[in-house]
User: Fold this.
Amino acid sequence: MKNLYTLILAVLLTATTFAQAPEKMSYQAVVRDNGDALIKSLAVGMQISILQGSASGTAVYIETQTPTTNANGLVTLEIGAGTTTDDFTTIDWSAGPYFIKTEIDVDNNASYDITGTSQLLSVPYALHAETVTQPTYNVDTFYAALGGYVIETNADGTHGLVAAMQDQGYSNWYGTNDLLSNANNHDVNGAKFKDWRIPTKRELNLIYIKKGSIGGFANFYYWSSTEIDYYNTGSQYFNDGVLYSSDKLNNTNYARAVRAF
Assistant:
Protein backbone atom coordinates (compact mmCIF):
# COMPACT_ATOMS: atom_id res chain seq x y z
CA MET A 1 0.00 0.00 0.00
CA LYS A 2 2.20 2.83 -1.30
CA ASN A 3 1.83 6.44 -2.44
CA LEU A 4 -0.34 7.33 0.52
CA TYR A 5 -0.41 10.76 2.05
CA THR A 6 -1.49 12.42 5.27
CA LEU A 7 -3.27 15.68 5.98
CA ILE A 8 -2.21 17.33 9.23
CA LEU A 9 -5.22 18.77 11.01
CA ALA A 10 -3.74 20.16 14.20
CA VAL A 11 -0.68 20.30 16.41
CA LEU A 12 -1.81 21.62 19.77
CA LEU A 13 -0.19 22.15 23.14
CA THR A 14 -1.91 20.14 25.86
CA ALA A 15 -0.53 22.30 28.67
CA THR A 16 0.21 19.45 31.03
CA THR A 17 1.18 21.26 34.20
CA PHE A 18 0.67 18.66 36.89
CA ALA A 19 3.71 17.92 39.04
CA GLN A 20 6.52 15.85 37.55
CA ALA A 21 4.58 15.20 34.30
CA PRO A 22 6.47 15.60 31.01
CA GLU A 23 5.33 18.29 28.64
CA LYS A 24 3.39 16.97 25.68
CA MET A 25 1.82 18.21 22.47
CA SER A 26 -1.42 16.81 21.10
CA TYR A 27 -1.14 15.79 17.44
CA GLN A 28 -3.85 14.77 15.00
CA ALA A 29 -3.65 13.62 11.37
CA VAL A 30 -6.03 12.12 8.82
CA VAL A 31 -4.60 9.21 6.81
CA ARG A 32 -5.89 8.62 3.23
CA ASP A 33 -4.83 6.42 0.33
CA ASN A 34 -3.94 7.65 -3.14
CA GLY A 35 -7.60 7.50 -4.13
CA ASP A 36 -8.43 9.90 -1.27
CA ALA A 37 -10.15 7.10 0.68
CA LEU A 38 -9.80 7.19 4.46
CA ILE A 39 -7.65 4.55 6.15
CA LYS A 40 -10.10 3.57 8.89
CA SER A 41 -9.73 1.63 12.15
CA LEU A 42 -6.17 0.52 11.40
CA ALA A 43 -3.14 0.43 13.70
CA VAL A 44 -0.28 2.29 12.03
CA GLY A 45 3.34 2.76 13.01
CA MET A 46 4.43 6.37 13.35
CA GLN A 47 7.76 8.08 13.88
CA ILE A 48 7.66 11.70 14.99
CA SER A 49 10.74 13.91 14.76
CA ILE A 50 11.20 17.49 15.97
CA LEU A 51 13.59 19.21 13.56
CA GLN A 52 15.41 22.42 14.44
CA GLY A 53 16.09 25.27 12.02
CA SER A 54 14.49 24.01 8.82
CA ALA A 55 12.46 21.20 7.24
CA SER A 56 15.73 19.34 6.74
CA GLY A 57 17.27 20.43 10.03
CA THR A 58 18.77 18.45 12.88
CA ALA A 59 16.38 16.18 14.77
CA VAL A 60 16.45 17.24 18.43
CA TYR A 61 13.82 14.68 19.42
CA ILE A 62 12.56 11.40 17.86
CA GLU A 63 9.90 9.00 19.13
CA THR A 64 7.76 6.17 17.79
CA GLN A 65 4.14 5.25 18.50
CA THR A 66 1.49 2.82 17.20
CA PRO A 67 -1.85 4.64 17.21
CA THR A 68 -5.04 3.35 15.60
CA THR A 69 -7.01 5.46 13.13
CA ASN A 70 -10.67 5.93 14.02
CA ALA A 71 -13.75 5.53 11.81
CA ASN A 72 -12.90 8.86 10.17
CA GLY A 73 -9.29 7.96 9.44
CA LEU A 74 -8.07 10.20 12.26
CA VAL A 75 -5.06 9.37 14.42
CA THR A 76 -4.57 11.19 17.72
CA LEU A 77 -1.48 10.99 19.85
CA GLU A 78 0.58 12.96 22.34
CA ILE A 79 4.07 13.87 21.23
CA GLY A 80 6.28 13.38 24.23
CA ALA A 81 4.62 10.14 25.33
CA GLY A 82 6.08 7.73 22.75
CA THR A 83 8.96 5.27 22.77
CA THR A 84 12.23 7.17 22.71
CA THR A 85 15.67 7.57 24.20
CA ASP A 86 15.39 11.37 23.89
CA ASP A 87 14.09 13.82 26.48
CA PHE A 88 11.22 16.00 25.29
CA THR A 89 11.63 18.33 28.28
CA THR A 90 15.12 19.42 27.20
CA ILE A 91 14.00 21.01 23.92
CA ASP A 92 14.87 24.71 23.95
CA TRP A 93 11.74 26.16 22.33
CA SER A 94 13.35 29.61 22.18
CA ALA A 95 15.93 28.33 19.67
CA GLY A 96 13.50 27.76 16.78
CA PRO A 97 12.05 27.64 14.26
CA TYR A 98 11.00 24.01 14.70
CA PHE A 99 9.40 21.55 12.29
CA ILE A 100 7.51 18.30 12.88
CA LYS A 101 8.42 15.42 10.59
CA THR A 102 5.82 12.63 10.47
CA GLU A 103 6.57 9.18 9.07
CA ILE A 104 3.79 6.57 8.88
CA ASP A 105 4.10 2.81 8.36
CA VAL A 106 0.60 1.89 7.19
CA ASP A 107 1.13 -1.86 6.71
CA ASN A 108 3.49 -2.24 9.70
CA ASN A 109 6.30 -3.79 7.68
CA ALA A 110 9.03 -1.58 9.20
CA SER A 111 8.96 0.63 6.09
CA TYR A 112 7.48 4.11 6.27
CA ASP A 113 4.96 4.70 3.48
CA ILE A 114 4.24 8.35 4.20
CA THR A 115 6.62 11.17 5.08
CA GLY A 116 5.55 14.75 5.70
CA THR A 117 7.09 17.80 7.37
CA SER A 118 5.37 20.95 8.58
CA GLN A 119 6.56 23.95 10.51
CA LEU A 120 5.37 24.68 14.02
CA LEU A 121 4.08 28.10 13.05
CA SER A 122 2.80 28.73 16.57
CA VAL A 123 5.68 28.16 18.98
CA PRO A 124 4.62 26.15 22.06
CA TYR A 125 4.76 29.24 24.24
CA ALA A 126 3.80 27.45 27.45
CA LEU A 127 6.73 25.10 26.95
CA HIS A 128 8.96 28.01 25.90
CA ALA A 129 8.05 29.87 29.08
CA GLU A 130 9.31 27.01 31.20
CA THR A 131 12.78 27.44 29.67
CA VAL A 132 12.88 31.16 30.50
CA THR A 133 14.17 32.25 33.90
CA GLN A 134 11.85 34.80 35.50
CA PRO A 135 13.93 37.76 36.76
CA THR A 136 13.73 38.55 40.46
CA TYR A 137 13.86 41.93 42.18
CA ASN A 138 14.72 43.18 45.65
CA VAL A 139 12.69 45.50 47.85
CA ASP A 140 14.26 48.90 48.61
CA THR A 141 16.11 48.98 45.31
CA PHE A 142 15.92 51.29 42.29
CA TYR A 143 15.50 49.56 38.91
CA ALA A 144 15.64 51.72 35.81
CA ALA A 145 14.06 48.86 33.83
CA LEU A 146 10.99 49.00 36.08
CA GLY A 147 10.75 52.78 36.07
CA GLY A 148 11.37 53.41 39.74
CA TYR A 149 11.97 52.16 43.27
CA VAL A 150 10.68 48.75 44.37
CA ILE A 151 8.69 49.13 47.58
CA GLU A 152 7.13 45.66 47.75
CA THR A 153 7.48 42.20 46.15
CA ASN A 154 5.85 38.80 46.35
CA ALA A 155 7.60 35.91 48.14
CA ASP A 156 9.91 35.00 45.25
CA GLY A 157 10.64 38.55 44.10
CA THR A 158 9.20 38.11 40.61
CA HIS A 159 6.32 40.60 40.94
CA GLY A 160 5.67 43.62 43.07
CA LEU A 161 5.14 47.36 43.26
CA VAL A 162 7.28 50.29 42.06
CA ALA A 163 7.10 53.93 43.17
CA ALA A 164 7.98 56.75 40.78
CA MET A 165 11.19 58.64 41.53
CA GLN A 166 9.59 62.10 41.38
CA ASP A 167 6.27 63.76 42.11
CA GLN A 168 3.85 64.00 39.19
CA GLY A 169 2.38 67.33 40.20
CA TYR A 170 -0.12 69.10 42.41
CA SER A 171 -3.90 69.17 41.89
CA ASN A 172 -7.25 68.18 43.30
CA TRP A 173 -8.03 64.46 43.41
CA TYR A 174 -9.97 64.47 40.14
CA GLY A 175 -7.00 65.84 38.21
CA THR A 176 -4.46 63.39 39.62
CA ASN A 177 -4.87 60.67 37.01
CA ASP A 178 -4.13 63.19 34.27
CA LEU A 179 -0.92 64.12 36.05
CA LEU A 180 0.14 60.49 36.38
CA SER A 181 -0.56 59.60 32.75
CA ASN A 182 1.48 62.51 31.38
CA ALA A 183 4.97 61.30 30.45
CA ASN A 184 6.32 64.84 30.94
CA ASN A 185 5.63 64.46 34.67
CA HIS A 186 7.98 61.46 34.96
CA ASP A 187 11.74 61.04 34.74
CA VAL A 188 13.31 59.33 31.73
CA ASN A 189 12.74 55.85 33.19
CA GLY A 190 9.20 56.41 34.42
CA ALA A 191 8.15 57.99 31.13
CA LYS A 192 8.51 54.59 29.42
CA PHE A 193 5.42 53.26 31.18
CA LYS A 194 1.72 54.10 30.82
CA ASP A 195 0.32 52.04 33.71
CA TRP A 196 1.09 54.42 36.57
CA ARG A 197 -1.75 54.88 39.06
CA ILE A 198 -2.60 56.57 42.37
CA PRO A 199 -1.40 54.44 45.32
CA THR A 200 -3.87 53.00 47.78
CA LYS A 201 -3.72 54.24 51.37
CA ARG A 202 -1.63 51.20 52.35
CA GLU A 203 0.72 51.66 49.39
CA LEU A 204 1.05 55.38 50.09
CA ASN A 205 2.15 54.58 53.63
CA LEU A 206 4.78 52.18 52.24
CA ILE A 207 6.09 55.05 50.13
CA TYR A 208 6.14 57.33 53.16
CA ILE A 209 8.14 54.77 55.16
CA LYS A 210 10.72 54.61 52.34
CA LYS A 211 10.60 58.30 51.38
CA GLY A 212 14.15 58.94 52.53
CA SER A 213 15.52 56.34 50.13
CA ILE A 214 13.26 57.30 47.23
CA GLY A 215 13.64 61.04 47.63
CA GLY A 216 12.11 64.14 46.10
CA PHE A 217 9.05 64.48 48.34
CA ALA A 218 7.45 67.68 49.58
CA ASN A 219 6.56 68.15 53.24
CA PHE A 220 2.91 68.25 52.31
CA TYR A 221 -0.14 66.06 51.69
CA TYR A 222 -0.22 63.27 49.07
CA TRP A 223 -3.27 61.66 47.51
CA SER A 224 -4.29 58.03 47.89
CA SER A 225 -6.88 56.22 45.78
CA THR A 226 -8.71 54.91 48.87
CA GLU A 227 -12.03 56.74 48.96
CA ILE A 228 -13.74 57.46 52.28
CA ASP A 229 -17.05 58.63 50.86
CA TYR A 230 -18.41 60.46 47.84
CA TYR A 231 -16.64 63.71 48.73
CA ASN A 232 -13.47 62.60 50.51
CA THR A 233 -10.54 60.28 50.05
CA GLY A 234 -7.51 59.29 52.09
CA SER A 235 -4.35 61.37 52.06
CA GLN A 236 -1.11 61.35 54.03
CA TYR A 237 0.97 64.22 55.37
CA PHE A 238 4.57 63.48 54.40
CA ASN A 239 6.02 65.70 57.11
CA ASP A 240 4.95 63.40 59.95
CA GLY A 241 3.11 60.48 58.28
CA VAL A 242 -0.32 61.24 59.73
CA LEU A 243 -3.27 60.00 57.64
CA TYR A 244 -6.05 62.45 56.81
CA SER A 245 -9.30 62.75 54.91
CA SER A 246 -9.14 65.23 52.03
CA ASP A 247 -11.90 66.79 50.00
CA LYS A 248 -11.55 65.40 46.48
CA LEU A 249 -12.65 68.61 44.76
CA ASN A 250 -11.56 71.43 47.02
CA ASN A 251 -8.24 70.18 48.42
CA THR A 252 -5.06 70.22 46.34
CA ASN A 253 -2.38 67.66 47.19
CA TYR A 254 0.72 66.20 45.62
CA ALA A 255 0.70 63.01 43.55
CA ARG A 256 3.31 60.21 43.55
CA ALA A 257 2.57 57.32 41.21
CA VAL A 258 2.96 53.55 41.61
CA ARG A 259 2.84 50.70 39.12
CA ALA A 260 2.76 46.93 39.43
CA PHE A 261 5.25 44.63 37.71
